[in-house]
Amino acid sequence: MILVVVPAFNEEKKIGRVISDLLKQGFSDVLVVDDGSVDSTSQIALDGGGKVLRHKINRGQGASLETGNEYARQNNYEFVVHFDGDGQFNPRDVIIAIEKIKKEQADLLLGSRFLDDRSQIPFLKKKIVLPISKIINYFLTGVWLSDVHNGFRILNKKALHSLQIDQDGMAHNTEIVKKAKKNKLKIIEHPVEVIYHNYGQGVLGGFKILWDLIIK
Amino acid sequence: MYLIQILLILFFIFALVKVSVRYKKGELKIGVFIGWTLFWIIAGIVAIIPNSTSYFAGLVGVGRGADLVVYLSLALIFFMIFRLYIRIENQEKNITKIVRKDALSDKK
């Protein structure tokens, strides 16, 4: 039993497409965690055939993912897929990734933009921001990864029950890897395609993550 | 007595009154009430007798009494910011827990 958790905040323009693409790939349980959107995200998600949990106020992406994880724990799912709600991921990657995590008997699968050449990563991000972030991530987590912070991941039941996300904001990405290492979970990476609609969270967002990780 | 001393003393009296009113309303615990009352009384004594700090400054190796007051005030302010930060963080986590519980109990 697989649950795809899609955190979404004001994604009414894209959430419908994301859900329909996931359903077309055969994932019947798509859970949108609407993080206090003020637009029609929840309604569109429901109309599109998704399940919806709604945060009454905005709490951040990490908080939304943990809400999805808790739903998965309560309903005994075998695998949880974290999949962004802004349409930047390719739903076809999920099927292959699920097969891989099962085949390699891994606990945590992390998407990577650097394991193939499908993602058109903006120059500054590819050459400066991400390489520096990878080094910082290594020092914070003790795990050397080919990519950081892209939001695509799959947790098996063991990972789901041993990892609790406490970082409400974007620092959850690093937190998850750090806790996975601490709990001796098997981590693997898998190539994913990321389609850039805009620059993403930028350099300032990176500093915010670092601040959260150090202070919180 | 200089004008600044009068203004400071008036402010400290105002602060003492506010502390007392909040204590009477039950908004402050007894320990917090006593702590703040002592703090404003000591501040008042320092304002009336500025040289009183020189003795303590000499004891700890600070040249001037005024400098000692500034150092202690800064240390206190940073400590209070730290305390407030921790408290706000805890409140944020609790808010998230409540929002999550509400969301999970109201699945659509």
3D architecture notes:
The complex is a heterodimer of chains A (216) and B (108). With 216 residues, chain A is α/β, with parallel strands linked by helices. Chain A has a single domain, classed as Alpha-Beta Complex (Spore Coat Polysaccharide Biosynthesis Protein SpsA, Chain A). Chain A has helices at 15-24, 41-47, 61-74, 92-103, 123-141, 157-162, 172-182, 202-215, and strands at residues 2-8, 30-35, 51-55, 79-82, 108-112, 153-156, 187-191. The radius of gyration of chain A is 16 Å and the shape is globular. The relative contact order of chain A is 0.17. The model of chain A has no long low-confidence stretch (mean pLDDT 90). Chain B is mainly alpha-helical and 108 residues long. Chain B has one domain (3-104). Chain B contains four helices and no strands. In chain B, helix 1 runs antiparallel to helix 2 (30-48) and helix 3 crosses helix 4 (65-104). The mean pLDDT of chain B is 92. The interface between A and B is medium-sized, with 21 and 14 residues.
Outline the secondary-structure elements.
The complex is a heterodimer of chains A (216) and B (108).
Chain A: E1 2-8, H1 15-24, E2 30-35, H2 41-47, E3 51-55, H3 61-74, E4 79-82, H4 92-103, E5 108-112, H5 123-141, E6 153-156, H6 157-162, H7 172-182, E7 187-191, H8 202-215
Parallel strand pairs in A: 1-2, 1-4, 2-3, 5-7
Antiparallel strand pairs in A: 4-6, 5-6
Chain B: H1 3-24, H2 30-48, H3 52-60, H4 65-104
Task: Going across the biggest sheet of chain A, name each strand in turn.
Answer: 3-2-1-4-6-5-7
Low-confidence stretches of chain B: none
Structural shape of chain A:
globular
CATH-derived architecture of chain A: Alpha-Beta Complex
Percent helix of chain B, as a range, is over 70%
List the domain count of chain B as a whole number. 1
Number of strands of chain B: 0
Q: Number of helical runs of chain B?
A: 4
CATH superfamily of chain A: Spore Coat Polysaccharide Biosynthesis Protein SpsA, Chain A
- Could you report the average pLDDT of chain B, rounded to the nearest whole number? 92
Oligomer: heterodimer
Largest sheet of chain A: 7 strands, mixed
Radius of gyration based on Cα positions of chain B: 21 Å
